[in-house]
Amino acid sequence: KKLEYGTDHKFLEKLKQKDVLACKQLYLQYADAMYNVCLRILQHQAEAEDALQEAFIKVFNNIQQYRNESSIGSWIKQIVTNTCLNVLKKRKITFDELKDDVNESESVSENESENGNDYSVDDIKKVIEELPQGYRVVFNLYMFEDYSHKQIADMLEISESTAKTQLFKAKRKLKELLLAKKR
Questions:
Q1: CA 64, CA 45: separation in Å to the nearest integer?
Q2: Using alpha carbons only, what angle is made at residue 51 by residues 126 and 72, rounded to the nearest 5 degrees?
Q3: pLDDT digits (tens, 9 = 90+) for 32-49
Q4: Within 10 Å of residue 58's Cβ, how many Cβ atoms?
Q5: d(CA 5, CA 2)
Q6: How many beta carbons lie within 10 A of that of residue 170, not counting itself?
Q7: Model confidence at 52, in pLDDT bands (50, 70, 90)?
Q8: Are 152 and 142 in contact (CB under 8 A)?
């Protein structure tokens, strides 16, 4: 019988008692999705694998603190994201503030209806990987991990306006890179 993770009281109790089968089941349920989160944030396979393992160690060591207030998947994702961000902090990423010469209200998608703007998923993935690290991290957290500007700012210890700036610049840079690929 399939367990409902995060809501099944018996399963949660088994996790809290460090039941090996329950821990293995939880890992198997979430490892692939969480590895993808790690890979999007870190962009390096070995680092993503290490961060995933470190995050799951934290999950199992801190399972007593899980209060079933959100899904267990959301709770694990937060631990995974924070683990990856700690790896990035060691790399000393820089985040750009918005300069006065850039019009923040300028639309990143002004000419989206230009002829032939059909890009493959692979094209878009490659272009995202080409973004400067600060842009890419904020872009991934906002677009793929669904964090708000405030949450991103708190996680990265930057201002909310810097988080917005990074996203704005990332979108603009993505558009430039995609248009350059079309030429």
A1: 30
A2: 100
A3: 999 999 999 999 999 999
A4: 15
A5: 9
A6: 23
A7: very high
A8: yes
What amino acid occupies position 23?
C
pTM of the model: 0.73
Residue with tokens 């840079």: 173
> Which of 72, 87, 183, 62 is closest to 137 using CA atoms?
87
Cα–Cα distances in angstroms (integers) from residue 127 to residues 37, 63, 124, 175, 183, in the given order: 17, 37, 5, 9, 14
pLDDT band at 3 (very low <50, low <70, confident <90, very high): very low
- pLDDT of 106 strictly over 90: no
Are the CB atoms for 58 and 79 separated by under 8 Å? Answer: yes
Confidence class for position 89, pLDDT limits 50, 70, 90: confident
Provide the sign of the torsion angle of the four alpha carbons 49, 52, 56, 57, taken in this order. positive
Q: How many CB atoms lie within 10 A of CB 25?
A: 17
Report the C-alpha gap between 81 and 135 in whole angstroms: 16
| DSSP string over 118-161 | ---HHHHHHHHHHS-HHHHHHHHHHHTS---HHHHHHHHTS-HH
Check: CB of residue 88 under 8 Å from CB of residue 41. Answer: yes
Token representation of residue 98: 């918005």
Closest CA to 162 of 141, 146, 183, 144: 141
